[in-house]
Amino acid sequence: LGHGVGNARESRRPPEHVLRSRTTARALAVPPDTMAEENVETFAFQAEINQLMSLIINTFYSNKEIFLRELISNASDACDKRRFLGLTDEAAAGGGEEMCIRVKVDKAARTITIEDQGVGMTRDELRKNLGTIAQSGTRKFVEALKVKPSDGSSNLIGQFGVGFYSAFLVADQVALVTRAAGGEQLRWQSSDDKSGAYTIEPDSSEPIAGPSGSRVILHLKEEADEYLDEYKLRSLLQTYSEFISFPVQLWAERTEYEQVPDESAEPPAEGGLPRMKTVPKTTADWERVNKAKPIWMRAPADVGQAEYAEFYKAAFKAWDEPLKVAHFSMEGQVEFRCLLFVPTSLPYELSQDMFSQAEAGAVRLYVKRVFISDKFSDKILPRWLSFMRTLIDSEDLPLNVSRELLQKSRVLSIVAKRVVRKALDLLQELAADEAAYAPFYEQFGKYIKVGLIEDRDNKDEVLKLARFSSSRAAVQAARAGAPRADVPADALTSLDAYVGRMAEGQKQIYYISGSSRAALEGSPVLEGLSAKGWEVLYALDSVDEIALQGIGKFHDLPVVDAAKRDADMGESSEEERAAADAAAVQLEPTLAFLKEALGSKVDKIELSRRLRSSPAAIVQPSWGMSPSMERFMRAQAVALGQEEQLAGMGGGASTAILELNAKHPVVAKLRELVDTEREAAATRDYAQLLYEVAAVTSGYEIADPGAFARRITTLMADGVEMAPVEAAAAPAAA
Fold it and tell me: For the chain, how long is the longest CA-to-CA vector?
């Protein structure tokens, strides 16, 4: 405890404003001679300590149960120091017995006692270590809390004795019994009258076990009754001190049942056995609560896969096996140890909410094997890696004074970059085996695509992990003349593999967005690319499309939307260019009529180079919005009540370009109607129907489905005699 209380060092000067012995006695109106005879020293804090204690109790700690973590950590530090001193000092080493930390509850006295066998403290060390917050540095400490350093690297943990004083979160009086090796047993005790004083005196209570050690006794406040419960204390010890290197023991009661003769029963017959009854028997003994081993402290070569799996399930309350594990450490300017786990299955919480707040426990932070918090996930890992399970143990992370908040600093940035780098390496190792990677990507692929969107620093590395649906199966079937059994229709591809399969003359990487594979495979905008044997990536949801839009270039190849006007359709021959020029002249009146008939439904009407079997298609300009993205944005705006923000955004058929296939019979029919019956209603209906068919096949929604249906019905009935549809007769009365 002596080493751990505020991390005070023996080199610190004695308190300047602690009034000792006769001076303090006069201030408190206590006869000095009486104090000298009893060898009792009384100390008083200055007025500013009341302010500091108020900050400790009411501000620093949002969770009062942290007191147990702090006191156990102090006890562990004291044992560590004794073990170190014992290497050169036989008196400190004692008899070589194993040191431990013991916790005991006395419900009748309303106390919690925490005892260790660490270094203990002398009278002089008590004055310095437990007087730390009473030094003149107190004012600087209070001021430090109010002024944030320019670099944001404030690291107040372990200063001014705050860890020890967390005891006052739950106690209105605290006593410390301690003995250094070869020294006398002393008692430090705070006053119970809120006078701001404490005493140091010889102690005659039960001797400290071992050559040295400390015993902290907390007299609990009325509102702290819950900590008198043995189950509650065991739960807290297992949470915060599970991996402390010294045994942590709790005085626990056990109820066992035994068979005894039933004295109220009739005596047994001669030679018979007495009647027995079951009675409870309550015993108490020390029970070790920190049985788990901190496997991250061992060399990776010494830890088996079964041990990793067992630890993963226990630490992260998981039921699946880890798919991949990384166990590493970093030394030098920043030191930490880390375990990274890739789950096999998507945690239930993430299946309900992709970035569930319940998954704040994805990163568990320890300091010297003491659990600090599992609420720092967003400070260590980017959001797209929140599905991974991570444990970090470091003494260098910049925690605030209560060790409940992780502050921004250069150290934190170094740790985060190192952990993310290792996570990327781990996932790339997994991706090297496509058979093993496929089931992983089925569950976690969306997170990888979010990484493409959000993690610009690691975009190139994340791109290697991304997989997309594509027209690969259809393209390779066309090349082979038959479907290939080794290429399933729903097979995914990486961009590297896509580039490796690119046909001669292809200068861009193409993608197209839509609601389903079937819809995209029938899209008219892909006809030209398919005819050339050029593969197209399928963006089947909004995350796919946003991710692909953000790539820009891959291996110096532009990644473009195949449904955009400026998508490269390859080189045209002189014959094709001449035929296109002739068609443009012939169809000029038809294009003008279409623009007049459709009005603002489209921005432009042009002849197409991409169409083969379809009469028309709708494409977007380079700045336009795809129909899938438009639906996504509209749904988001409606959900947020921000529909007006969609105004002016590029998207929809109204900003698009209608492309016509000059060689298609439907276009030839329209040209004939325009030349002979330009003003007829049937000609305008034909033009509208051509547009609506193009819109539907290109993925757009029809503004007036009823009118579209009537035009289709008319077309179906053309040349067929049909009786008028009569209203159905009313059913006869029963």
Answer: 127
Q: Tell me which DSSP letter residue 399 carries.
A: B
Residue 535 phi, psi dihedral angles, 5° rounding: -75, 145
Alpha-carbon span 24 to 41, nearest angstrom: 8
Per-residue CA distances from 187 to 13, 50, 418 (Å): 21, 23, 47
**What are 423-455's pLDDT values in tens digits?**
999 999 999 998 889 999 999 999 999 999 999
Handedness of CA 208, 213, 219, 224 (dihedral sign): negative
Quick one: CA dihedral 62, 66, 70, 76, positive or negative? negative
Nearest to 399 by CA among 157, 60, 166, 165: 157
DSSP-derived 3-state class of residue 505 = coil
Q: Measured in whole angstroms, how far is the alpha carbon of residue 529 from the centre of its chain? A: 41
Tokens of 24: 């303090």
Predicted confidence (pLDDT) per residue in 634-684, tens digit: 777 777 776 666 555 544 555 789 999 999 999 999 999 999 999 998 899
Residue whose C-alpha is closest to residue 455's, from 340, 547, 537, 539 = 547
Query: Which positions ≥6 away from 344 have C-beta within 8 Å?
Result: 320, 321, 322, 323, 440
Within 262-321, strands assigned E span 276-288
Cα–Cα nearest to 667, from 594, 559, 582, 581: 594
pTM: 0.72
Q: Which residues contact residue 707 at a Cβ distance below 8 angstroms, ignoring those fewer than 6 apart?
A: 688
